[in-house]
């Protein structure tokens, strides 16, 4: 590494903070006025309060839920992977510019649109304007994406638990504390602030307990402390996917899926709201603490190593893995810049808990900026550690905890505590995202089915039955080993879903008033459709047809399963493209019709 390529990472933080500040103070204020947020209107949480799904939440509690739900493993894995392959400059630019102009707009307008449509999903909203066929197409698209999300996040949690058994113990403690906090606040109606202080303190004590008593189901990764308590002896070879994932990782996967299924079925006040509120303190401390530690470590020189980039700024248009920067960078970094999954959270759980309309600005737009900061911390972590290319998801996650632990040494925190703490920060994101995703999948299916007319439909819409419908295929995807090949499909589906959410918002605005400009949502929508369709075509045609089926060497060695997997990838890619372009055409026709005949517009702010 040449010395002149090294840059102090504090300049990366300064660039992101400057652009994000301009976005929140300026652009988000304009958007809030543009969609006419009005606290005099009752939100769906108050109009339809049922103690189960529609439950008004205090702004900090709901921000904690929303931030925890949207910030899963992807804003960590994506920037780390992109930084290693193409260099830190293109990765940072996509985060710093794309987030305030595209991702935060996407989250905010998805939340605002749902707010004005009874807390319904983006699928329901698009159906209001383009018809039942469009609604069902988008809902099925979203439901299939949710299964990919559940599979990827459950696997990521298992990988982190294997690398950092301390995080497994701490996670169990903080889930238990969350249940107690829910009873404290909603059943006993005890004081909010004293409870917050007590339970947050107990949660950080739980982190220390985790470092003292790490927990593993089978023998964990080599970096695990010698004091790790291993629950089961033996190799665990009988566990599905133990050979490819390792017994400990493979054993955690079904437990995490079971947790997600059960947690998604509980009333939001039992676990979702209090857990997300508690975990938000972990997340704010981890992300905010890391950013502050970079400043302190740079100014005072207190970190264990110089806080400078050890990655090249740019490795070339064809990155170190042989992948072209365009369009793959924009699919590799999804969460952290723009992510369709967020539209499901915004229009799924968050809109049903919003206490007043003005809260949408901080929670929707500001929450996404917060995820951008997490992506920045992840990129800085990999820039410090500079691992070799090609490690994939198994390398990215430990790198985040290792790099984060190095950053926290600026405060005098030893890496033996800082590393596990950052691992717990990551897990708290992931656990929240996993069970929120299962809950959102149920919402999707309920809207697809409507009133059940058969036992099969009743099972699919039931809160427990639907969890099974999602968890089982997610588990099959993981244990088959196909999760490695599905990562790009997950990114492509996620980004296409973002484009469709922006399409939904654009159609809503067009039907609201002919005076509403459509550039803020329509511009990012066009960009995301173009990038993602090209990316999926690259995946189908280049990575599968050209690099596999037209390669005689690959065909000679490929197993039947490998061929079937490649065919499935090709089919999924083309199906996603077909669904997305069909919905774009439907949306465009609706916008064209209402702009030519404004009287046909179908929305007013009082419709909900």
TrEMBL record:
Keyword ATP-binding attributed: no
GO cellular component, one term: plasma membrane
Primary localization: membrane
Domain CstA N-terminal: 9-388, 397-533
Membrane topology summary: Multi-pass membrane protein
Keyword flag Cell membrane: yes
Superkingdom: Archaea
Membrane-spanning ranges: 6-27, 138-161, 167-185, 192-210, 251-272, 281-302, 322-341, 362-386, 406-432, 467-486, 492-510, 522-541, 561-585
A single GO BP: cellular response to starvation
Pfam families given in the database record: CstA
Compartments, record wording: Cell membrane
Keyword list, A-Z: Cell membrane, Membrane, Transmembrane, Transmembrane helix
PANTHER family given in the database record: INNER MEMBRANE PEPTIDE TRANSPORTER, PEPTIDE TRANSPORTER CSTA
Name of the protein in its database record: Carbon starvation protein
């Amino acid at each position: 590494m040449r010395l002149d390529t090294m840059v102090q990472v504090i300049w990366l933080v300064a660039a992101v903070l400057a652009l994000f500040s301009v976005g929140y103070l300026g652009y988000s204020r304009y958007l809030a006025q543009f969609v006419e947020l009005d606290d005099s209107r009752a939100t769906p949480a108050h109009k339809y309060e049922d103690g189960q799904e529609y439950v008004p939440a205090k702004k900090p509690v709901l921000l904690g839920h929303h931030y925890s739900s949207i910030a899963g493993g992807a804003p960590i894995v994506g920037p780390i992977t992109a930084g290693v392959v193409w260099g830190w400059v293109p990765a940072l630019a996509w985060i710093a510019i794309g987030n305030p102009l595209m991702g935060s707009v996407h989250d905010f307008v998805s939340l605002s649109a749902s707010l004005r449509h009874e807390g319904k999903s983006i699928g329901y909203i698009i159906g209001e304007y383009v018809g039942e066929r469009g609604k069902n197409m988008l809902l099925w698209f979203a439901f299939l994406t949710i299964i990919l999300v559940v599979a990827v996040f459950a696997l990521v949690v298992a990988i982190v638990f294997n690398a950092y058994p301390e995080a497994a113990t701490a996670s169990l403690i903080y889930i238990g504390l969350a249940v107690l906090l829910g009873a404290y606040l909603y059943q006993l109606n005890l004081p909010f602030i004293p409870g917050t202080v007590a339970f947050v303190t107990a949660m950080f004590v739980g982190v220390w307990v985790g470092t003292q008593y790490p927990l593993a189901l089978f023998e964990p990764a080599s970096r695990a402390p010698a004091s790790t308590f291993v629950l089961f002896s033996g190799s665990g070879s009988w566990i599905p996917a133990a050979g490819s994932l390792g017994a400990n990782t493979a054993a955690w996967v079904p437990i995490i899926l079971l947790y997600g299924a059960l947690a998604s079925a509980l009333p939001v006040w039992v676990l979702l709201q209090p857990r997300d509120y508690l975990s938000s303190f972990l997340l704010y401390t981890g992300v905010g603490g890391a950013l502050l530690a970079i400043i302190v470590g740079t100014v005072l020189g207190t970190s264990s190593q110089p806080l400078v980039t050890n990655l090249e700024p740019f490795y070339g248009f064809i990155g170190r893995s042989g992948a072209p920067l365009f369009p793959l960078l924009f699919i590799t970094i999804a969460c952290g810049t723009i992510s369709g999954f967020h539209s499901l959270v915004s229009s799924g759980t968050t809109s049903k808990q919003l206490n007043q309309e003005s809260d949408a600005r901080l929670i929707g737009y500001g929450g996404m900026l917060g995820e951008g900061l997490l992506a920045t911390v992840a990129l800085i972590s990999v820039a410090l550690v500079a691992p070799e290319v090609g490690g994939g998801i198994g390398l990215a996650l430990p790198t985040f905890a290792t790099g984060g632990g190095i950053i926290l040494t600026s405060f005098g925190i030893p890496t033996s505590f800082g590393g596990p703490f950052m691992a717990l920060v990551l897990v708290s994101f992931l656990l929240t995202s996993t069970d929120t995703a299962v809950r959102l999948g149920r919402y999707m299916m309920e809207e697809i089915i409507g009133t059940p007319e058969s036992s099969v439909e009743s099972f699919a819409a039931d809160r427990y039955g639907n969890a099974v419908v999602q968890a089982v295929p997610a588990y099959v995807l993981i244990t088959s080993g196909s999760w490695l090949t599905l990562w790009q499909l997950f990114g492509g589906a996620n980004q296409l879903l973002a484009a469709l959410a922006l399409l939904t918002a654009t159609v809503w605005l067009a039907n609201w008033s002919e005076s509403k400009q459509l550039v803020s949502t329509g511009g990012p929508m066009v960009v995301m459709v173009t990038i993602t369709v090209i990316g999926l075509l690259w995946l189908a045609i280049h990575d599968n047809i050209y690099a596999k089926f037209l390669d005689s060497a690959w065909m000679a060695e490929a197993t039947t399963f490998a061929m079937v997997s490649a065919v499935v990838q090709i089919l999924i890619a083309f199906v996603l493209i077909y669904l997305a372009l069909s919905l774009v055409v439907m949306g465009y026709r609706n916008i064209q019709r209402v702009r030519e005949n404004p009287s046909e517009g179908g929305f007013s702010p009082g419709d909900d």
